[in-house]
Amino acid sequence: MTPHFLFATGIENSNPTIHNGKTRVDEMEKCGHYRYWQKDFDLVEELGISFLRYGPPIHTTWLGPGRYDWSFADDTFRDLYRRNIAPIVDLCHFGVPDWMGNFQNPEFPELFADYAKAFATRFPWVQLYTPVNEMFICAEFSALFGWWNEQLKSDKAFITALKHIVKANVLAMKSIAEVRPDALFIQSESSEYFHAENPAAIRPAELLNAKRFLSLDLNYGRRVDSEMYEYLMDNGMTREEYHFFLHNRLKHQCIMGNDYYRTNEHRVHADGTTRASGEIFGYHVITRQYHDRYRLPVMHTETNLWQGPCGDEAVNWLWKEWANVLRVRNDGVPIVGFTWYSLTDQVDWDTALRENNGIVNPLGLYDLDRNIRPVGQAYKQLISDWRQVLPAQSVCLQVPIVMPKDTNENFAQEKQADAQQASQDSSTMAANTTSANSL
């Protein structure tokens, strides 16, 4: 079993609804992936990439409780297996099927766990998962900013969406692990920071910097800060719901995927409103903050920048982010992967998918005609230069991944058996601890 550093890209599969649920924003459709998926996989191979953030479109695959149309997933995942590309499977990316409604639906977590288990059962060779992408951003844009899906604008709606989304992620991890005991879960969450503009803004900035951790605190079973506990309780979370998250015991199978863009840092005004600050601390400083809190292996799961008029803007950003990854590693943080997101240009992210304008955003490794961009050439060279160096330099950069075509090898089967036994031992220990505490 060969250790891997996870050089990755992704195929953008955002699919929220806007216009009060009447319009589906399907990035796979807008970017031409349904037509050119085989070509897209060719491009992944051309770059020398073995790991791909990818998932089936949830709104056309999940037809109802226990009802699925796997036709597109069967074709695409069969081809990924043939190419020995390991997908990091993104099951829910900012949207749910029309029949589910939106993230205010309390039935979403349990039903989504069933969907995740059905996927894992159909594709047992898949090991890497991001069950729900950017949980915090999904809840914030849908239920606090009023941009997507339920399009609500209240703290209560935000907490309702957040608790349902994170519970769905937790239950999906458990259901996937029942099928694939050695599954690894890469969270892919936005890493944020809020800078106080003046002394009067210190207090609101502190609250926002506490709030940014809510999704991962709940997901990893970490007790939230006292003020955030009051915020959760004041906005509809019950003690029973909170304690559900504290009892989650899957952190040992998690990699803290964090996303960083220039828009991830914010300037906070005295009244608590914010505006973009641009890059101030950068990926290195903010990632250290998240790692200090959760003590998990890290993967840089998303970044990009528009190719501007000079043609080298995205290339320079790639090298800056890569320098930050190496700085994080040299500080002793176990960082296991890096991702330029996404493979091709995207559409309408300049308005955060709030408007259906058809504007192409030139931030992919390839344009929508599938011609390589300068950043694609640079990333290909970066991967070629560093692929063989990193595993020899540091064990903290190695993850024991089972590649698709090795799934039935003896070592892979032994790895799954060991993971199954470890899970059973952990469950037994937890049950004994609960019994002892009740005496």
UniProtKB/TrEMBL annotation:
Origin: domain of life: Bacteria
UniProt keyword annotations, A-Z: Hydrolase
GO BP terms, alphabetized: carbohydrate metabolic process
Biased composition (Low complexity): 418-427
Disordered, as annotated region: 412-439
Biased composition (Polar residues): 428-439
Family annotation (Gene3D superfamilies): Glycosidases
GO-annotated molecular function: hydrolase activity, hydrolyzing O-glycosyl compounds
Protein name: Glycosyl hydrolase family 1
Source organism of this protein record: Hymenobacter gelipurpurascens
